[in-house]
Each structure stands twice: as C-alpha cells, then as structure tokens.
Amino acid sequence: MARIFIGLCLHYLLLATSTFVIVQSQKPQIPAELQRLYNTDLETWVAPKEFLKDFPYYLSGFDEEDHPIWVLEFGRWDIRTTVERGPKSQAKFDKYVDQAVMIIYNSSIPDDGINPVIGIVDFEGYNLRQLSSAKTLEYIIQKLRLILIALTNLQSAYFINVNFFAEKILNLVRPVLGKEFAKPSMAVSKNIYVYQIPPENLGLFAVR
C-alpha cells in the first residue's frame, strides 16, 4: 500500500513538473537589450506626478481579440525642455521612459505566450521647437531604438494628427523604424497613417 501511495505521489509530482515546464517554455525570452531594465527598481518606482501629466501614455483598453491598446500622446511631450535642463533632469526622464518601455513590453507577454499590442501615437501639438533642436532629435533617436525593441510584439501602429512638423520627424526616424514603417499600410486621411505588421514579421522589425 505504501509503495502504491508513493508511486502515485511521484506520478502527480512528475505530471505537475512537466506541466510547469511546458507553461514556462511558452513565456518568450526577454530580449537582451531589455534585460537590464529588470535588474533595477523600475517595477516599484513611482514616477513623479508631473511626468505623468507632461509625458502621457496609457493603456486605453483592449480590442475584440484582447490585444492591449496603448496610446502615446507624443505631441505633448516637451522633450527639448527636459534635455536642456541637464543630466539630472534627463536621468529622471530616462527612468520614466525605461519604465514605460518595460510596462508596455510586459503587456505583450502574458503567462500563456505572446499577445501583440496595438500602438496609437498622437502627434497633436507637435511643433517646430521640438524639431529644431539637434540634441533633442539625437535623444529621441537614441531612445527610439530601445522603444522599438520593447515593441517587438507590435501588431499595428496608428499615427494620428500628423501635422507638418510630425511628418518631418517621422521622415527623420524612418531609417531607425525599419522597412515596415517605410510606407503606411493605408492612409485614412492626410493626417492619419496606419501601419500593419505582417504576422511573420512579429519580433523581427524592431532590431535595426
């Protein structure tokens, strides 16, 4: 009887372990470029309230297939002022952006695999002041490389309220964005662009 009991215990233990291994194997590996973010206090760090107000991004909801919809109100991001305030201000902003990158990436890797995200970038309010600073443009391109890695599981991107200055910045960063962003999949109107990422390219376009 004791042998039977022990045998049953071992059987269920092995079954549970096998199930655990299968589930764990479905979780995608974090890209090497993002791993440093997980060795910091970003998961518990509370961003300054003024950052949340001045540099808004948020989870808007989910589509009918349960894909997270993230909105970035980029037109309101006064990155130039942050850069011009010096290293201390820029370091805080770096941390804010890094935390946003980690949060958005985490939303695309639930426990049961990959759930591609949808991005909406709102350029309303983007102006010449942001575009005319070489330091600001250099900083944007530098951070964009990290952001694109976080969006490795991006399904589609919507660029809305694209004004003259937003069009200029998009033209400047397109080489960094890659071929999937060379031309919109469709232009809903003159100031709304839609980029659909082919399923076979998920996880590939972000690294350039």
From TrEMBL:
<feature type="signal peptide">
    <location>
        <begin position="1"/>
        <end position="25"/>
    </location>
</feature>
<dbReference type="InterPro" id="IPR001251">
    <property type="entry name" value="CRAL-TRIO_dom"/>
</dbReference>
<feature type="domain" description="CRAL-TRIO">
    <location>
        <begin position="47"/>
        <end position="208"/>
    </location>
</feature>
<keyword id="KW-0732">Signal</keyword>
<dbReference type="Pfam" id="PF00650">
    <property type="entry name" value="CRAL_TRIO"/>
</dbReference>
<protein>
    <recommendedName>
        <fullName>CRAL-TRIO domain-containing protein</fullName>
    </recommendedName>
</protein>
